[in-house]
Amino acid sequence: MATTRIGLDRLPAAARTAVEQHTGPLFTVVEASEGFNSEIAVRVTSATGAWHIKGLRTDHPRAWTQRREAAIAPFLTGIAPALHWRVEAGGWDLLGFDALDGHHADYAPGSPDLPEVAALLRRLGETPRPDIGLRHAEQRLERYAAHPDDLSFFAGDHLLHTDLNNANVLVNDRAPQGDRARLVDWAWATRGAAWLDAGYWTIWLIAAGHSPASAERRAAEMPAWHTAPAEGITAFTAANRNVWDEISTADPAPWTLRLAAAAATWHDHREAV
Fold first, then answer.
1. Which residues contact 184 (CB under 8 A, 6 or more apart)?
2. How far is Cα 258 from Cα 207, in angstroms, rounded to an integer?
3. pLDDT tens string 11-44
4. Is 26 helix (H, G, I), strand (E, B) or coil?
5. Given Cys at both, which of 14, 44, 129, 193 links 159, Cβ 3.0 to 4.6 Å?
């Protein structure tokens, strides 16, 4: 469920003051138009730089996502924007990241962003899993797997992002080719089988207009994809069909219905193979 967004100007004075101890007086504040998880999501500038600030009340049910992002950020050099500061004041938990330039990745067939996203996911696949508390993929999919034995396919010791929404991938066309994309929003970072992020990306690719076969060819650009047993991939499609059916039933917005249709299309394709 999406979180209600509020403006930075509605923060308590103590929280705003704590932020400005790091930024200095703010020149500009631009609200983010994407994202569902943060009450505060803004790009700000001041005499000392530019930041993306995201935050939640400390008593928010998803306040744990702020702690997760703060814990994992130091391990994501070259993968995600750097975290420069965190403040807890006035009942708020606020994170200050590098404000990245660029656009949200275009996942459509033929998009020049696709090789950049693939390169990003390969770098992520080579990133050691930090020794911090992460949920396990098999735990997250436990209620959705078609058969209990399927959960063993999802288990592993690799760092995963798991939310490959194109709005979570920023592409800077002015950066060196092959190093233009960064992943944001690490609230759902997970420990699991190395090939799962390629699988999560496949669902979003299908939702963007790829056929299942075309999307799987993109997934195959990640070396980890080739470690996935065929029956494991099919089990993953079945579980995610159930995930997106549940999400779209609870919130039948156009984007959730589109993802549910994509997950169903991929599952039907795998069952027919």
1. 52, 80, 81, 97, 100, 168, 169, 170
2. 6
3. 999 999 999 999 999 999 998 866 567 899 999 9
4. strand
5. 129
* Token code pair at residue 246: 């549940």
Evaluated on CA atoms 144, 217, 125, 99, the torsion sign reads negative
Q: Which residues contact 246 (CB under 8 A, 6 or more apart)?
A: 144
Question: Do 100 and 183 form a contact (C-beta atoms < 8 A)?
Answer: no
Quick one: pLDDT at residue 1? 46
The H-assigned helical ranges of 9-50 are 13-23
What gap in Å lies between CA 55 and CA 5, rounded to an integer? 10
pLDDT in tens, 196-252: 999 999 999 999 999 999 999 999 999 999 999 999 999 999 999 999 999 999 999
The DSSP letter of residue 61 is T
Continuous segment of H or E residues that includes residue 85: strand 83-89
Stated pTM of the model: 0.94
Q: How many residues does the chain have?
A: 273
Which three-class secondary structure state does DSSP give residue 35? coil
pLDDT in tens, 80-101: 999 999 999 999 999 999 999 9
Encoded tokens for 114: 């696709």
Percent of the chain with pLDDT over 90: 91
* Helix axes 254-272 and 212-219, enclosed angle (nearest 10): 90
The dihedral through the CA atoms of 123, 125, 74, 61 has a sign that is positive
Residue by residue, DSSP assigns 255-271 as HHHHHHHHHHHHHHHHH
How many C-beta atoms lie closer than 10 Å to residue 129's C-beta? 17
Contact yes or no for 137/156 (Cβ under 8 A): yes
